[in-house]
Design a protein that fits this description.
Length: 120
């Protein structure tokens, strides 16, 4: 069964850090393009970070460049999103999805999401 399970969300103060993990089962993360997306209440889904299959080319959304880092662990079959210098506007449900490529949003497999709240 192909599945993605996110973990690591929670409540953090502005300026703090969180580390989100996406555990894959039923497929190998190296062979597929995996992205992190987020959706805040009343807003559409926004691309946060994406890592391409094979060569691991990385793309970040403009609002998180320099603050977030995506990485892939082949041994653990996970994709991780390290989030630093968090801001209240980063508050959203974060999803890990398998997509066709990093140029848009064309999901093949969707995770269930994990809530991130940035507030003092």
């Amino acid at each position: 069964q192909v599945q993605l399970v996110e973990s690591g969300g929670g409540l953090v103060q502005p300026g703090g850090s969180l580390r989100l993990s996406c555990a894959a089962s039923g497929f190998t993360v190296d062979l597929w393009t995996v992205g992190w997306f987020r959706q805040a209440p009343g807003k559409g889904r926004e691309g946060v970070a994406c890592i391409s299959k094979g060569d691991g080319n990385i793309k970040y959304g403009d609002s998180v460049k320099g603050r977030f880092t995506i990485s892939r662990d082949s041994a653990k079959n996970t994709v991780t999103l390290q989030m630093d210098s968090l801001k209240p506007e980063d508050t959203a449900v974060y999803y890990c999805d398998v997509v066709n490529d990093c140029s848009g949003y064309s999901p093949l497999v969707r995770g269930q999401g994990t809530q991130v709240t940035v507030s003092s």
